[in-house]
TrEMBL record:
<feature type="active site" description="Nucleophile">
    <location>
        <position position="279"/>
    </location>
</feature>
<feature type="region of interest" description="Disordered">
    <location>
        <begin position="1"/>
        <end position="34"/>
    </location>
</feature>
<dbReference type="GO" id="GO:0000340">
    <property type="term" value="F:RNA 7-methylguanosine cap binding"/>
</dbReference>
<dbReference type="InterPro" id="IPR011145">
    <property type="entry name" value="Scavenger_mRNA_decap_enz_N"/>
</dbReference>
<comment type="similarity">
    <text>Belongs to the HIT family.</text>
</comment>
<comment type="subunit">
    <text>Homodimer. Associates with components of the exosome multienzyme ribonuclease complex, such as EXOSC3 and EXOSC4. Interacts with NDOR1.</text>
</comment>
<feature type="binding site">
    <location>
        <begin position="270"/>
        <end position="281"/>
    </location>
    <ligand>
        <name>substrate</name>
    </ligand>
</feature>
<keyword id="KW-0508">mRNA splicing</keyword>
<dbReference type="InterPro" id="IPR019808">
    <property type="entry name" value="Histidine_triad_CS"/>
</dbReference>
<dbReference type="InterPro" id="IPR008594">
    <property type="entry name" value="DcpS/DCS2"/>
</dbReference>
<keyword id="KW-0378">Hydrolase</keyword>
<comment type="function">
    <text>Decapping scavenger enzyme that catalyzes the cleavage of a residual cap structure following the degradation of mRNAs by the 3'-&gt;5' exosome-mediated mRNA decay pathway.</text>
</comment>
<dbReference type="GO" id="GO:0008380">
    <property type="term" value="P:RNA splicing"/>
</dbReference>
<dbReference type="GO" id="GO:0005634">
    <property type="term" value="C:nucleus"/>
</dbReference>
<feature type="binding site">
    <location>
        <position position="187"/>
    </location>
    <ligand>
        <name>substrate</name>
    </ligand>
</feature>
<dbReference type="GO" id="GO:0000932">
    <property type="term" value="C:P-body"/>
</dbReference>
<feature type="binding site">
    <location>
        <position position="209"/>
    </location>
    <ligand>
        <name>substrate</name>
    </ligand>
</feature>
Length: 339
């Protein structure tokens, strides 16, 4: 329900994966400065030559990101909606010397005594913009990225049973892309770690929001193998072995692969999540990642401790979270006089 990305792995619960190249094509390795990634088997068939911007949905100068809604013209003359997200990538410490060489151009903007401000024009290979594309996009995708007012909802256990769960059961949230990962039909070469137990196992994989070029903004997702667990509300003491595996084995895998210890990781669950198959977020502790606000992120260590105290803790607990103005679930709460 709130926040960023693509096909979620940009957290897209609301639509399909879009036009893709055929599955089965061999993934192509990427040079990520020692942190390896691949071009996945599901690569959007998209070209900016056919893209026309319709509207700026949202922008943030602080985050250096902009969300665009546009139309893509097909060969037959028909047009389909697309959402394009442009984001300036972080500076890479190990490439600073390349940035400050003679190939970069400096243009003076202001000079006052010992202080000067310039615009630096780096070489093309150091001037990349991360581009995320949702295509074809539905109206739900467009609304997802539009700037809107947000409202806090206090959802009791009964509210979940009587309002939220019935609403979710009427919605068609496509999570086929999740099953593609779990079944190794897509992104298999991106898997960092797997516990293959069907009940208490999971797959650990880099989130698409992380370009894997530096550890400062490390972001991985643990996706549980077990189906039928939608969110925090479904967790009981029965899932403690799964949650402990994710926390312990996920931290160990990240330490081994990226040399980042567990006490420098933020490990948490979203509620509401952006897609309804249980998953856990691993981010670098120093990274100000989207979705870490107190009204959405629940530390996995706290979740485990709460379930150890009360096996039905999340069946009964009142959970507070934010909903955007146009979200149908907010209207359900308003109609019930709960918000």
């Amino acid at each position: 329900m709130a926040d960023s990305g693509k096909r979620k792995r940009t957290e897209e619960a609301e639509g399909g994966d879009g036009d893709c190249v055929e599955q089965g094509q061999k993934p192509q390795p990427l040079d990520n400065g020692g942190l390896l990634g691949v071009r996945t088997e599901l690569t959007p068939a998209f070209s900016f030559s056919a893209f026309r911007v319709e509207k700026v949905l949202r922008e943030s100068a602080r985050e250096k990101i902009i969300f665009l809604h546009g139309k893509v013209s097909g060969d037959s003359g028909d047009e389909k909606d697309a959402v394009v997200i442009l984001e300036k990538t972080p500076l890479q410490v190990d490439r600073i010397s390349d940035l400050l060489n003679k190939k970069s151009e400096l243009k003076l903007q202001i000079c006052n005594d010992i202080y000067s401000t310039y615009t630096l024009y780096p070489p093309l290979e150091l001037n990349d913009v991360k581009t995320t594309i949702v295509y074809p996009a539905t109206e739900k995708h467009i609304q997802k990225y539009r700037s809107q007012d947000v409202y806090l909802v206090q959802e009791t256990g009964d509210d979940y049973k009587n309002i939220t769960l019935p609403f979710l059961q009427t919605q068609s949230f496509s999570i086929q892309w999740v099953y593609n990962i779990l079944e190794k039909k897509a992104e298999a070469d991106r898997i960092i770690y797997e516990n293959s137990d069907p009940t208490n196992g999971f797959i650990l994989i880099p989130d698409f929001k992380w370009d894997q070029k530096q550890r400062d903004d490390l972001y991985l997702i643990a996706i549980c193998h077990r189906r039928g667990l939608k969110s925090l509300r479904d967790l009981t003491a029965e899932q403690l072995p799964l949650l402990r595996n994710i926390l312990q084995e996920g931290q160990e895998a990240i330490l081994k692969r990226y040399s980042l210890p567990g006490n420098q990781l933020r490990v948490y669950v979203h509620y509401q999540p952006s897609y309804y198959h249980l998953h856990v977020h691993f981010t670098a502790l120093g990274f100000d990642a989207a979705g870490i606000a107190v009204e959405r992120a629940h530390l996995l260590s706290d979740v485990i401790a709460n379930l150890e105290l009360d096996p039905l803790y999340y069946q009964k607990r009142t959970l507070t979270y934010a909903l955007r103005a146009n979200e149908p679930l907010l209207k359900k709460f308003l109609d019930a006089g709960k918000c």
